[in-house]
Amino acid sequence: MVEKDRTLKAATQLVHGGVLRSPFGETSEALYLTQGYVYPTAEAAEARFKGDEPGFIYSRFSNPTVAMFEKRMALLEGAQAARGVASGMAAVTAAMMGQVKAGDHVVAAHALFGSCLYVIEELLPRFGVAATLVDGADLDRWRAAMRPETKVCFIETPTNPTLEVYDIQAIADIAHGAGATLVVDNVFATPLLQKPLQLGADCVVYSATKHIDGQGRCLGGVILASEEFIQTHIHNFLRQTGPSLSPFNAWTLLKGLETLPLRVERQMASAARLADLLAQSPKIERVYYPGRDDHPQRAIVRKQMSGGGTLIAVEVAGGKAGAFRFENALEIFLISNNLGDAKSLITHPSTTTHQRLNVEQQARMGIQPGLLRLSIGLEDVDDLADDIARALDAV
Ligand SMILES: Cc1ncc(COP(=O)(O)O)c(C=O)c1O
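^ thats the input. predicted complex w/ pyridoxal-5'-phosphate below
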């Protein structure tokens, strides 16, 4: 069985890993659009429910197509266990809520995607879980924030949208020293370029909506960790609260995984070239790209990432007006708040994804009025370079 062999390279696992082939011998993974399952006898139903016999019970708990996606993701991540969920935010919410109770405390970097910030800053405190936000790059701040009741630390690295990079191993050590766990949102790095579990994190979450689908079709999320972590914190929370991944979306994501290495490799090569091009323009005041030598955390990038990723952030001259002129002059890049897509996308974070934050909060996260985030797609890089050059003339 291919999926049992962990020495296979990622590209091979992503095509063959986790397949549950039906008696019909289909080539492509089967899509099991079913809510429930039937049992040959009452005794068989009893044994299945008791866990004495393997098998599926109800698609809120598990489903063969979802199980294939989970197994393939676990192989890619090098995790013992994975759970597919309905969206990236379902993954973040379950990973946090599943671990805490009233009286606990969590620590997170303040540079987070807006909805993650909502879960940590607003939702958890409503249930008696205190939250402290720190500068994720400052290890002394992490150390100072730890309390006896700290249960979970949470980071996203590279961050959305300023592409700051945090030291996963160092933060995991601080969390463990205080008896807490570390959850890493690895969306920007993709499962190919950074392996948080190998760096000491306890749990990794993805919005599979991004590079894993990568073709703008469906929402999805996944939580990866040790079997013990999943059983202790996640398994029952998901079964009883029901943020289940639809089998159709799991099937789409399985197909996405087959081409993930090709897409990420190509998008990253284009991103590296376009970041250099942008850096040469007098209309661009600053470029943030983890693959460039001028990235402030370049040493950490080298230590924990195998590439600079598919996203670039830039500060355009002329603030918000300059940024809007640049966005509106682009013809191939589409204005969208999404990322990781086959189509190149551009976002103005301060008026879209991070609009909820006030000016001071935005400034603390490095979100200036002229900041734009570019997600590089699969188009010919020469066309993308021309599109950028022409639009810069309009700034
Ligand atoms: C870093 C990060 N985490 C989580 C999410 C949430 O994912 P989803 O939209 O699939 O819920 C997003 C994007 O939306 C994101 O950029």
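The CA atoms of residues 263 and 378 lie 7 Å apart.
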